[in-house]
Design brief:
124 residues, alpha/beta, Rossmann fold, 5-stranded parallel sheet, 5 strands, 42% helix, Bact_response_regulator, CheY-like_superfamily, Sig_transdc_resp-reg_receiver, phosphoprotein
Length: 124
């Protein structure tokens, strides 16, 4: 059975790019275009990896993590959660890690090959 990945990203171009290159590697992919869609999908759980943008409309990535924690959902409802951001020294990264994220990726530094390498690395 293929690994299941959720991409929560409001920038359509990036969301579609990540979805295409990850699907091409044989992974099952769901996407969410804003914070509420991401929260809803993450609440249901079952993802091997969630790529979670921080800056999202309606509900940002950190608010999603806080709501999931307050709801008492077990951290492992989604096996790994990785923050996506453009800021390498973002305080939000530290806060996300405090909330249980497994790592982060700097979007501006990612090539398609690096996305795949990172996804596979987090899934090991």
């Amino acid at each position: 059975m293929s690994k299941k990945i959720l991409i929560v990203e409001d920038e359509q171009y990036l969301r579609e790019l990540y979805e295409e290159i990850i699907k091409d590697e044989g992974f099952a992919v769901d996407t969410a275009k804003d914070g509420w869609e991401g929260y809803s999908a993450m609440s249901k759980g079952g993802y091997d990896l969630v790529l979670l943008d921080i800056m999202l409309p309606k509900l940002d990535g950190l608010e999603i993590l806080q709501k999931l924690k307050k709801a008492g959902l077990p951290k492992k409802a989604n096996k790994k959660v990785v923050i996506l951001t453009n800021l390498s020294k973002d305080l939000a990264i530290a806060h996300g890690l405090e909330l249980g994220c497994d790592g982060y990726l700097i979007k501006s530094d990612l090539t398609p090959d690096q996305v795949i390498k990172s996804v596979k690395g987090f899934l090991e």
